[in-house]
Design a protein that fits this description.
The protein has helices at residues 3-11, 25-40, 129-139, 146-159, 170-181, 186-194, 199-209, 227-233, 245-248, 280-285, 303-322; strands spanning 14-19, 44-49, 67-69, 79-83, 104-108, 119-122, 213-215, 220-225, 255-261, 267-273, 289-290, 294-299. It is an alpha/beta fold. It binds manganese (II) ion.
């Protein structure tokens, strides 16, 4: 049911769009894609981020045009759109800045979305939030400029792991084909997302893969990045995007774990699982969330202790399923 979202977008004149912290391709692609759609409809749109766009997504059109990097939200009567967020808490510090009483549109594909907001469009069967933005725009008869197509295609490409995850269904592939028809260039986008890596990042990947540990008779694999490794290789933390897929890619591994030490000493945990082994429940146990095959959380450090706690929880999860 796209109608509530369509009515919301039709009714507003000025929009401020948000997505989650540590934005990925779907968060940025959905937000910038919607900004282009609203712009083409003669409306005003801003995409507000708490931190600058990660380097690898610098190619997405609409920067700096729509993007505003700021820690404070003006209370100026705009309609708000919060995309790809389970709850407004995913905006972290910006959540407390949202103007009281501003109308909120919530578009998301996380099953544990809290259904916040005044207009809600949550569909956990969608591969990406970008796919939902496309469907809303199509159902609502909104014009889709080529720039919007590029942004939305990027969201679907990254959230399906380049069309390799379980969520790469006919609907996602059809949407990708439609976006290509509208002007998204698959080779150009894939090259920016996957082949514009810095040498520092590849060196960091090499170091990271050397931390590989296998547990549970080879059904669980774990890799780690420490702050020291970032410093020694000169790679920025955002360059670790995609590292989480490596442990799961090993033959026989059902759950891949990627741990990254953060500036404040806490540990970012990324979990990836194979078909039929939902892992979001484990992330929930640590106060995180996500999708059945890709979930995450933040846990207190130090790294070694966090690793043992997370690997124990993953092991228990697999053992409970085996019973
Ligand atoms: Mn997403």
């Amino acid at each position: 049911m796209t109608k509530p979202a369509i009515d919301f977008l039709r009714a507003g004149k000025r929009f401020r769009i948000f997505s989650h912290v540590d934005p990925d391709g779907d968060a940025l692609g959905s937000a910038l894609g919607l900004a282009w759609i609203l712009h083409a409809a003669g409306k005003e749109a801003r995409v507000q981020l708490a931190a600058p766009v990660p380097r690898m997504y610098g190619f997405l059109p609409g920067q700096p045009r729509f993007v505003e990097v700021s820690g404070s939200v003006p209370d100026s009567g705009e309609s708000l759109a919060i995309l790809d967020c389970t709850s407004p808490g995913r905006l972290r510090d910006l959540e407390h800045q949202l103007p009281k009483g501003a109308p909120i549109l919530n578009v998301d594909h996380h099953a544990d979305n809290t259904r916040f907001g005044n207009a809600v469009h949550v569909d956990p069967t969608a591969a990406a939030t970008a796919l939902l933005i496309l469907e809303i725009a199509q159902d609502g008869g909104f014009q889709l400029p080529a720039e919007a197509a590029t942004c939305l295609y990027t969201g679907i490409l990254t959230d399906t792991g380049r069309f390799t995850y379980q969520n790469s269904d006919a609907r996602a592939l059809r949407a990708a084909a439609e976006l290509a028809r509208l002007g998204a260039d698959p080779a150009h986008i894939a090259s920016h997302v996957f082949e514009h890596r810095l040498a520092e990042a590849i060196r960091l990947l090499g170091r990271t893969l050397e931390t590989l540990e296998l547990r549970e008779e080879g059904r669980v694999a774990c890799i780690c990045v420490t702050l020291a490794m970032l410093q020694e290789t000169g790679a920025a933390a955002e360059e670790t995007e995609g590292f989480a897929a490596w442990p799961r890619s090993i033959e026989g591994v059902q759950v891949g774990v990627f741990l990254r030490e953060q500036d404040d000493g806490s540990i970012k945990v990324s979990l990836r699982s194979t078909t039929g082994v939902p892992i979001d429940g484990v992330a929930n146990r640590f106060g995180g969330g996500g999708h059945p095959a890709a979930a995450g959380a933040r846990v207190p450090g130090p790294l070694e202790e966090a690793k043992e706690r997370v690997l124990r929880a993953v092991g228990e999860h697999l053992q409970a399923r085996a019973r």
